[in-house]
Amino acid sequence: MVKMNVCLMILLMVMSLALGFSSAVDFRWRKGGGFSGRFTRGAGGSSVVFPVHGNVYPLGYYNVTINIGQPPRPYYLDLDTGSDLTWLQCDAPCVRCLEAPHPLYQPSNDLIPCSDPLCKAMHMNGNHRYEAQEQCDYEVEYADGGSSLGVLVRDVFSLNYTEGLRLTPRLALGCGYDQIPGASSHHPLDGVLGLGRGKVSILSQLHSQGHVKNVIGHCLSSLGGGILFFGDDLYDSSRVSWTPMSRENSKHYSPAMGGELLFGGRTTGLKNLLTIFDSGSSYTYFNSKAYQAVTYLLKRELSGKPLKEARDDHTLPLCWQGRRPFMSIEEVKKYFKPLALSFKTGWRSKTLFEIPPEAYLIISRKGNVCLGILNGTEIGLQNMNLIGDISMQDQMIIYDNEKQSIGWIPADCDELASLQASAAQVYEY
């Protein structure tokens, strides 16, 4: 029912645009289960919405297209709520660049000096040594071993509000002239869209310039694609499941209270799990203890079922095969129990982040079903647990930095993407 309300909300918005009822559109659902036919701009301005492309498998990434520079040129940027800096592979010249779908970014002459507040915010630990005062050097490293080295510049980003108005702010980004690919980076990319909580993130910069609320969200479809949005006009807060953000772990989108892992609706006994929502990770990673518990419970549950381990399928560490190849998760999900993470939201209240089988399984090219939850401790994540794209599919995930809360609500992300594209066409017309 919630999914229907989400789509109805966007559908009405698109219809109103097409009929010309209002030039300023408010996407919000109304409290009380109804939807108002009166469209007004939300407090604090409209949202910015991007169509998302990609999938968990077989591509292994989601990205958006953003036009940057003067004149504006399109670049494909991978979504990453786990890091702050947005960077492009850059002809500065490039010392070491990866395969890219577009020509390398030609940097503007607007270098950011090391005295700039954004540069200082990037190097808050105080250990950075500036080689040149007139430029701010950066180096970002990712959990999969990838990295980017370069300098900060400012350039024009060409964006559109949901009501069609053009927005062209000058924002800081990285001109990356030395990239090392990570173990999970097997696709051409122009760069990374840093969506974290830090001051240098694109969202934080847009917010500090007064363009949008300090809220970000995404809806990734299990069929591929979806939407990314900045601002708070696309949802009714009263219908969202919320949990407070951690103030201690301020670098990541992490619930304040550790999660309790449930299997089939029952506790596994694993509590206080440090959890991070990370759109830059295709798969979900549990620490060794949680991973071993899940794999043990799954294997026990599958005992006697018409599935056996497919040891010759190396798509992911753990795969199972049936009597014949599977075509979809629908055929096999009946053999698997749902997982969930329970987060405390108050003294006695809790909120549940559900992970059904379709949010932790994939069907490999060989027609086997594989576990999309991996052992994070083995790749250096220590005790952290990452909720990756696979487990955030078909949900609207919201990171409200103003209220310091993370929220989620089931949604038909494929339908939302289609309606958003329709709305964009109306504005172009």
Automatic annotation (TrEMBL):
InterPro entries attached to this UniProt entry: Aspartic_peptidase_A1 (IPR001461), Aspartic_peptidase_AS (IPR001969), Nucellin (IPR033823), PEPTIDASE_A1 (IPR033121), Peptidase_aspartic_dom_sf (IPR021109), TAXi_C (IPR032799), TAXi_N (IPR032861)
Listed name of the protein: Aspartic proteinase Asp1
Residues of the Peptidase A1 domain: 62-409
Family matches, as CDD domains: nucellin_like
Catalytic center residues: D80, D278
PANTHER family documented for this protein: ASPARTYL PROTEASES, EUKARYOTIC ASPARTYL PROTEASE FAMILY PROTEIN
Family membership: Belongs to the peptidase A1 family.
GO biological process terms on file: proteolysis
Signal peptide per UniProt: 1-24
Record keywords, A-Z: Aspartyl protease, Hydrolase, Protease, Repeat, Signal
Record bears the keyword Repeat: yes
SUPFAM superfamilies xref list: Acid proteases (SSF50630)
Domain of life: Eukaryota
Pfam (any one): TAXi_N
One term of GO molecular function: aspartic-type endopeptidase activity
Organism: Brassica campestris (Field mustard)
